């Protein structure tokens, strides 16, 4: 797959229209700790069909069809029917994995849903002693004058990113300014809201100082 | 492995679902209700079709590729049984009992062997197995109506019981194959499809039933 936009990951989505093709749906992978509400928001923004079950949380429709998996004839298939059947099964499983991964990636916050809203660059922020950088931005985009400048979808996506950044800054005690936060948002926007926040944490985490290390000894050792 | 064998293994911790879009939601619902599968219905109706979401009784990392189509064909199309033959239930149906059915609610065509079986079915306890048997009778009655096959219901029930594992549509297809011997004539081609176009009365009854189901929900 090229790039990291949701559109790239889901380029086959229109090939399996609901009502014409029966496809597989997936549950949220619980082990990844994805917030179901955020996952549904991302799915809606990306055009992934969602069904909310009573017991299993939201389901997301993939592009992998239940039947009629077409294998390309120009592949170098074996002439042995049994071997060919195995090869086709392997190819189908690979396709299925890719289709499932595409949806998981997008609803899990690791793909860019829409381009960075450049209107954010012109916003002015009022710093706060109690709120972190992301929280200041979140407050700013809800002020009527700023809100009017944002498309509804951009506002919704920004809230996803700012939620992740605010949590990261709060959890790791990071006191970045709103301007620096915005800079990071913009630079790593393409990683998705979760991906961008993880990158932020990775770059900002305080080094793990080994206080037991004898510096002289370490220096002598070269 | 059949669907009921998969279901009896128990629900997997992590599974895929399939979406089933059908224009015969009542039959689909009856098959699902009897199957033991986990399912839900999307109340957004797409035209005359309904979307059912069905959880596959197999972990997503294993044979879901083979179980997916199997469940789809059984649930949506009636090809393949969703439960083991309910032998004791079928044996307990007592023919010749029961009153005639209201045409608006009967699943089968009047003056068919299957209709007589459906009349007797009404005396059985309500439940998913009864509704599933009704789906089998409904399917086979389409063909019987076209060829004037009447009776007291015994031969239909015996036929359904014997070929149960084929599913309701599978049983009807098997019946179509034996039809020339029954009638002494060659079977009409595309029997089920042609009969669907020639059964406006049946379609009207089905639509009325579906409307009532939607209103109840």
Total strands of chain A: the figure is 3
- Largest chain interface and its two residue counts? A-B, 24 and 23 residues
Helical/strand content category of chain B: alpha+beta
Which strands sit side by side, in order, in the main sheet of chain A?
1-3-2
**Total separate domains of chain B:** 2
The low-confidence parts of chain B are: 189-217
- Count of helical regions of chain A: 9
Number of helices of chain B: 10
Assign the structural class of chain A, choosing from mainly alpha, mainly beta, alpha/beta, alpha+beta, or little secondary structure.
Answer: mainly alpha
Whole-number total of structural domains of chain A? 2
Taken in chain order, the helices and strands of chain A follow as HEHEEHHHHHHH
Number of strands of chain B: 3
Helix content of chain B: 40-55%
Largest sheet of chain A: 3 strands, antiparallel
Question: What characteristic shape of chain B results from the CA principal axes?
Answer: elongated
Task: Give the strand line-up of the largest sheet of chain B.
Answer: 1-3-2
- Main beta sheet of chain B: strand number and arrangement? 3 strands, antiparallel
Q: What oligomeric arrangement do these chains adopt?
A: heterodimer
